Amino acid sequence: MAAEVLLRAGRAVVAGVERPASVRVRDGVVVEIGPVDAQADGAAEVVLADDEVLLPGLVDTHVHVNEPGRTEWEGFASATRAAAAGGVTTIVDMPLNSIPPTTTVAALEEKRTVARDQAWVDVGFWGGAVPGNTSDLAGLHDAGVFGFKCFLLDSGVEEFPHLTAPDFATAMAETARLDALMIVHAEDGAEIAECVHGAAYDGFLASRPDVAEQRAIDLVLDTARATGGRAHVVHLSAAAAVPALRAARRDGVDVSVETCPHYLTFEADGIPDGATELKCCPPIRGGANRDALWRALTDGDIDLVVTDHSPCTADLKRADTGDFADAWGGIASLQLGLPAVWTGARERGIPLTDVVRWMAEAPARRVGAVGKGRIEVGAAADLCVFAPDETWVVDPARLHHKNPVSAYAGRTLTGTVRSTWLRGRPVDLSAEPRGRLLRRGDIS
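The line above is the sequence of allantoinase; the predicted structure tokens follow.
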């Protein structure tokens, strides 16, 4: 492709506004944003179709790639191909489910070595905070992780143990010293009951009540106040926790919160018996809760939407028995996040500009992914060409995720990603991968 490209879009999301625009790209960077009829001046021209909108590439900061160690669940090649197919140009990989987990600099380097030549989009990494590794956090921070992930209850994998309240306070005092972001799986194990074996979703839901999230989030907020640390609550499911988060921020606590496409799409009463593809932790709750999450997003109480892409092999979902107690908890949706959220937003009269803010701008800003998540002069020319009116039916066999298991199977979604651009060039899944491995603060 020519060294300079001019994209012309009758609709583009620029600076939070949808408008006609031309976007000039040189050496992988946006160098000019002008009127749609700007002079090409020798640049190669790309004209979007009338039904397409030019968006910034999405930034998904909650992705479980699982390589090395559990590559049969998902690997960097399959995950980043799925990301590109879904309009995502940057992912940040979670530190658990891989073996070894990313809790030391050596483990981080092992993961980077594995990922280096098989990333179709850019990849950053979270470090992990587990009992006994407080002394490792500074080294990981210096090595460029985007922050640290911890659990306040059993993570589900033995090599990534959870932090007790005292452990959490110790770890967060260190992340505060480093000015690093601590991201927290916030459920209180003391409030969680053993899940009754069986195919009824109600039994699983009852085992993980709203109060488990509320109590754990209270602990996060209290610890952030005490340490002055920066905190982020991952995959908020219980809308009942929003008032406490709102009050803490009003008091000056540096805390942000995300939710996920599945919590905005599904509701408990619509989950049939045995539908273990919809098991995740924390769980999908009722319809009124889903509506409250949407209100919290539009009101600004929830900052961002990311997928919590958490795949596994098909057998671990226990489709043969439909037993929610035995099934792995996690939903694979990296390729589907944008159309899933846009489908729900459109039904509620929410503009595409809001979806872009939640899924591109806000994640990039919160984790310090410099130059990502926006169409702006000086930013990386990471772009998504999106057809917001096109409907389609999800066929798991046609997704790029490694295992053809999807909570969205057979569901009609609105909005299709027509192409994804990384640093000013379309991502070609039949060519060699050219994604980069990012360190916190990289400008690319």
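Note on the example: The chain has a mean pLDDT of 97. The first helix runs from residue 76 to 85.
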